[in-house]
Design goal:
The complex is a heterodimer of chains A (262) and B (301). Chain A is mostly helical and 262 residues long. Chain A has 2 domains: 1-18 and 111-262, Serine Threonine Protein Phosphatase 5, Tetratricopeptide repeat, CATH 1.25.40; 44-109. In chain A, 72% of the residues lie in helices and 0% in strands. Chain A has 12 helices and no strands. In chain A, helix 1 (3-16) runs antiparallel to helix 6 (113-127), helix 1 packs antiparallel against helix 10 (209-221) and helix 2 (43-54) runs antiparallel to helix 3. Residues 1-26 of chain A have low confidence and may be disordered. By secondary structure, chain B is mainly alpha-helical. Chain B folds into 3 domains: 6-122, Serine Threonine Protein Phosphatase 5, Tetratricopeptide repeat (Alpha Horseshoe), CATH 1.25.40; 126-198, Serine Threonine Protein Phosphatase 5, Tetratricopeptide repeat, CATH 1.25.40; 214-301, Serine Threonine Protein Phosphatase 5, Tetratricopeptide repeat. Chain B is built from 17 helices and no strands. The chains are: A mainly alpha (262), B mainly alpha (301). The A-B interface holds A 27-28, 30-32, 34-35, 37, 39-43, 46-47, 50, 53-54, 153, 155-156, 158-159, 161-162, 165 and B 2-3, 74-75, 78-79, 82, 102, 105-110, 139-140, 263-265, 293-294, 297-300.
Chain lengths: 262, 301
């Protein structure tokens, strides 16, 4: 394994510990235009949808969405249902299931930031280990760019204050730039990766250890050892344990690299 | 008016008791008494306990539905009402409660269906028509359609000042100002008689009088603010009246109150910007910037 490919694997791990960016509040949260909300056409249809909303077990959610879409194939709520399924597949670490559910969710609601920002990091994360890596990286990039575009165009529900919206907006932008950074890194475009990952950190209301870990790894790959070391130490300090351990491991490798250049 | 306002806009004199006695399972605790005192968490806990003790009793589920609705848990509310319905509960109040739960979930098709069932089961009850009118007006912006429902509600309950106010508001929107004034005046008479803290018809009247009789408008606008001081739109109208009377300092104070109470409303932000500009206040530039930000975020087409 080359140093760069080793770092790629580490970066993939970084994404794996990030988790899902936003809790799903599909359909029932505050809406900017309630009059345009997806409507159930029968009580039974909504009962079935509420069974998905109320379920906590990931396998049960996957199954209930299957039942829902088979019983109500033309439901306006199917896009929101697939969002729940996407999240459930993510919890089950079922990447193919995620992709399929995400594509169906996007077919119903192409501008859903929840879906785009759930799919983008998941796809970027898994791309390295897949034969269709090139295509998946393009997909992840496309999702992230669409999310960035959508964040700027969204009409915000009045229930959300400007301050809270700006926080949420910066979180989403940070998430999308983080994905673009990972994609660039996977493509071997270190300067672009560093720019995007720095942007992700600057936008995050409270940057996480994993974001410094990603940046540290990208800087290391670009041969910027001092900056890499600084970011890896920051990542180790912020944690959590999984990030702390990877950061320390990478710091060790970085210092070994002094004696044995990559 | 926001979406969540509908359940809060119950017509006057409503009881939430179902058609049964309201005494459920535990004979020592009257659940409807707790409901009358708005002790909804206790109602929910008791209803839940009663439901566990007597799963076949739809009344316990009714109370569970109502209490969860009041506690802003619409998913739980709808599920409880639906379970009650499946056990055979079929009353005007249960359909009304279920309809309001659907409304809170933005399920307007099902909301309308339930309100129509409630109206059919109790043809003397004006409440479903009031809610249907409010939905037509606030969500669909259909003043003419809403007016038909408010008129129907008023046929059944002529002293319902909330329906009178809403009908006046629809007439005002349709440009029928004499009719609007008549409904606001009637609503005001009833509000004063019942000493209710309902400022909306005063605000409406102030709006109608603003250009022709600003001094008279001032009294109504002040009354609206005194009755509902936390309602930002009352302060907007009072600011406009003060502006019309050439009293810029008080107009600015009221516009500032409006933006403090509802920072996300572009109308009051714009009113404040205009007032600062008229007064030569250097804060005008910042107010304009804030207005543009709010407009772009919340009023984007």
């Amino acid at each position: 394994m080359t140093a760069t490919s080793h770092l790629r694997v580490a970066l993939v791990f970084c994404l794996a510990v990030v988790g899902i960016p936003a809790s799903l509040e599909a359909q029932f949260g505050p809406l900017a235009s309630p009059g345009q909300a997806a409507q159930a056409r029968s009580q039974e249809e909504l009962d079935s949808y509420l069974e998905i909303v109320g379920a906590t077990d990931a396998r049960a959610i996957v199954q209930r969405v299957k039942v829902f879409v088979s019983e109500f194939p033309k439901s306006e709520l199917s896009g929101a249902a697939y969002q729940y399924q996407l999240q459930a597949f993510e919890r089950l670490n079922d990447f193919d299931g995620m992709l399929a559910a995400g594509e169906k969710a996007l077919a119903a609601d192409p501008d859903s930031l929840n879906t785009l920002l759930a799919l983008a990091p998941a796809v970027a994360n898994r791309a390295a280990a897949r034969p269709d890596r090139v295509q998946l990286l393009s997909q992840a990039e496309s999702y992230a760019l669409r999310a960035l575009d959508g964040v700027d165009k969204i009409r915000v529900p009045r229930e959300l204050s400007i301050e809270k919206w700006n926080l949420r907006k910066h979180e989403m932008q940070s998430e999308a730039h983080g994905v673009l950074g990972v994609v660039a890194f996977q493509r071997g475009q270190s300067p672009q990766a560093i720019r995007e990952l720095e942007m992700a950190i600057s936008l995050a209301p409270r940057p996480k250890g994993v974001q410094f870990l990603r940046l540290g790894l990208a800087l290391a790959a670009a041969g910027k050892k001092d900056d890499a070391e600084q970011n890896l130490r920051h990542a180790a300090a912020l944690g959590p344990d999984s990030v702390h351990n990877v950061a320390l491991d990478q710091l060790k490798k970085l210092n070994e690299g002094q004696r044995t250049p990559w | 008016m926001c979406v969540a306002a509908l359940p809060a806009q119950s017509p006057p004199g409503r009881s939430v008791s179902p058609d049964s006695s309201g005494i459920v399972a535990n004979p020592h605790v009257d659940i409807s008494e707790l409901a009358r005192s708005n002790r909804w968490k206790e109602v929910a806990a008791l209803a839940d306990r009663n439901h566990r003790q007597k799963p076949e009793d739809p009344t316990a589920l009714y109370w569970l539905g109502i209490s969860r609705l009041k506690l802003h848990e619409p998913v739980g509310s709808v599920q409880a009402f639906r379970a009650a319905e499946k056990l055979g509960l079929n009353t005007a109040l249960s359909h009304e409660g279920l309809g309001l739960g659907y409304y809170d979930l933005n399920q307007f098709f099902l909301f309308e269906e339930q309100m129509k069932k409630a109206a059919a089961l109790d043809p003397r009850d004006s409440t479903p028509y009031f809610y249907l009118g409010l939905y037509r007006w606030t969500i669909r912006s259909d003043a003419a359609g809403a007016l038909e429902f408010f008129d129907k509600a008023l046929q059944l309950h002529p002293d319902d000042w909330k329906s009178l106010y809403q009908a006046g508001n629809c007439f005002e929107h349709l440009g029928k100002l004499d009719e609007a004034r008549d409904r606001y005046a009637k609503a005001i008479t009833l509000v004063e008689k019942n000493r209710d803290a309902f400022g909306w018809p005063y605000q409406g009247m102030a709006r109608l009088l603003l250009d022709e009789k600003p001094e008279a408008a001032l009294e109504f606008a002040k009354k609206a603010v005194s009755l509902q001081p936390d309602e930002y739109s009352n302060h907007v109208i009072l600011a406009k009246v003060y502006e019309r009377l050439g009293n810029l300092p008080d107009a600015i104070r009221e516009a500032e109150s409006a933006t403090t109470r509802n920072p996300n409303d572009s109308t009051s932000r714009y009113a404040l910007y205009k007032l600062y500009r008229q007064a030569g206040d250097p804060r005008a530039a910042q107010a304009l910037k804030e207005f543009q930000e709010v407009k772009m975020l919340y009023d984007r087409d």
